[in-house]
Amino acid sequence: MTDRLHTIVDHIAVKPNDSTEFRALKQRLALASLTAQFTLSTEQLRAMAYYFLHEMHEGLAGRPSTLAMLPSYVYRADTVSAHGVYYALDLGGTNFRVIRMVLEKGVLVTTDTIQDVIPQQHVKGTAEGLFGFIAALVETFFEGKGAADLAHARKTNSRIALGFTFSFPVTQSAVNAGKLNKWTKEFTTSGVVGENVVKLLQAALLKRNLPIDCVALCNDTVGTLIARFFKESTVEMGVILGTGANACYWERSAAVTKDHAVRNEGERETVINMEFGNFDSAHLHCLPVTEFDNAIEAASDSKGQRFEKMISGKYLGEISRQVLVKLGAKGVLPSDVAKKLATPYGFTSKDSGLISADRLPGLCFTQNLLKERYGITLTDINDLYTVKVVCVLVRSRAAQLAAMAISATLLKAEKTGNATVAVDGSVYEKTPSFRTIMATNIRRILGEESDVRLVLQRDGSGLGAGYIAALTAATSNKK
Ligand code: GLC
To answer: How far is Cα 358 from Cα 239, in angstroms, rounded to an integer?
Structure first.
């Protein structure tokens, strides 16, 4: 029955002479079919979680796995030693940020920041262009808010310490060195894959004659975990649900058998960046992909990353758009919907999130948004409801899948009882229901006795790099 329900939407075509009742009935059938495709049972989620666990083990051992399980070279340490002025750069989503942080014995006293949207020409351009853009904004900061630090460094002939959040799959060889394995999130910048990104950054800073040392390189998930760790030492995981999606967690160093340097640290805990966006991308053993997900993959510049394509902000609007276009083409929605939403990536995840949260009578928020942003006029409440349900389904599936990945990781860490998970990112932050669906599904997967707290760690991805830079500086001062 379920399989037939999945495909029923393919066999519905609303004809011009269908009665209003018949049209409404076909609309309901189409929604039932989509609901079957986009809703996951607890059994399905549990089965996926076990496969996720398997991939974690394989990845840590260095055997073929869709989870890269990348060591961060960040170890559990005493936060009180983090002291002084540190800079952090945050590159990895839509914006690039420069942050100045003042830490006093592990406590963040002040922050200053500037940010800019990463121009598309650099997302798809050259290494020189992208790192030149980064260095230019860093210089702008030092001409303004950071002028005193720069003057002081020049006068005393000292170097300014900086942490670099670079949110892509990087194989690190030290806390401040690592090569990019592949681009994700539709970046295609040439000359970076296979290179040490810290070297590229240092070279761009040197061109501007800035006395800066990048002492730490980290993923945004690692930054988020460490930023929370400074407030709450028992935090277990760092999760990003934004333009991209990924998570990291504390692992026993001894379990990282593929990396001798890490393994030799024994029982000391270290952070592992799982790169879960790529989960199950090799064989699609368990991901419930639909024709819409396959269409996104076919047109993507970031092949693989199938899990990320089902849950992150880069893609949620696009999945919704593909479904709406199909419904428009079938007459289930007015054909104008298909026409006005014809441009790939032309319907944003933000708008699809806002629509999914519309609780106004007559769905008038959805009606206005569609009119103002997309020039689509919908007057029939059934049509508006259909659009809303599509957006809700796409979001709920994302939240269910995110819950699955978090549950699996907590099972691996044997921390299903009482655990704190720090989350950052627009998808999580901007849609109120996202958090609730995640929490409910985590409880379903792990059992009612589990007590997992999801906490928003705003700016974690940026601040974390500064914290890690401070910890690194403190450790090397001790030596
Ligand atoms: C992508 C990147 C990953 C990052 C995530 C969230 O999945 O590959 O490194 O953590 O996006 O920004």
So the answer is: 26
